[in-house]
Amino acid sequence: MKVLMVCLGNICRSPMAEGVFRNKALEKGIELSVDSCGTANYHVGEHPDPRSVKKSKEHGIDISNLIGRQFSYSDFRKFDVILTMDQDNYRNVIALAKNEDDIAKVKMTLNYSYPGNNMDVPDPWYGGEQGFEDVFQLLDQAAIAFFKNHFNE
Ligand code: 4NP
Fold first, then answer.
1. Domain boundaries, given as residue ranges, for the chain
2. What residues contact 71, with CB distance under 8 A and at least 6 apart?
3. Residue from 5, 6, 11 whose mutation best tests the ligand 1 pocket (most atoms within 8 A of CB)
4. Candidate of 5, 20, 37, 42 to mutate for ligand 1, largest count of ligand atoms within 8 Å of Cβ
5. What is the reported pLDDT for 153?
């Protein structure tokens, strides 16, 4: 299975999500291809925000080498599941969909852990350190629920 994590800038939330999901797959011995991107182009070519790198490292995950890129239509062809961090990202991705198959691939990340709530992973960009820890915990819970849902483990 190939999964794409999507946020706005691809420097705070989605690179952390990429690291969390990849790490869980490795721990569980599940073959999962994970990538991330942003709906905006502000940070294309950049490494993740240092605050996201630090927080991931505290939890044993190295995301320092990831490189920001922007979502494009071809991602609908390349990925089986597209997980958006918030409702703005969801709308922006859906706006590029061309058919029902495309639309069916797009899900709110936290609907795995909080089904049907359409909860956002809050954007930590303007906040402090605690915001990044909160994002990590939300993503960790979502990853646990994702692997239960798709792989029954
Ligand atoms: P992200 O956070 O979408 O989680 O990567 C943001 C990164 C950059 C900006 C906004 C949010 N920005 O406005 O540049």
1. 2-151
2. 4, 6, 37, 38, 39, 92, 93, 96
3. 11
4. 42
5. 82
pLDDT for 72 equals 98
Minimum CA distance residue for ligand 1 atom 8: 9
* Below-70 pLDDT ranges, the chain: none
Given this model, what pLDDT does residue 54 score?
Answer: 98
Other beta carbons within 10 Å of 150? 15
CATH of 2-151 given 3.30.70.1110, 2.30.40.10, 3.10.180.10, 3.40.50.2300: 3.40.50.2300
- Protein residues with CB under 6 Å of any ligand 1 atom: 7-13, 38, 42, 123, 125
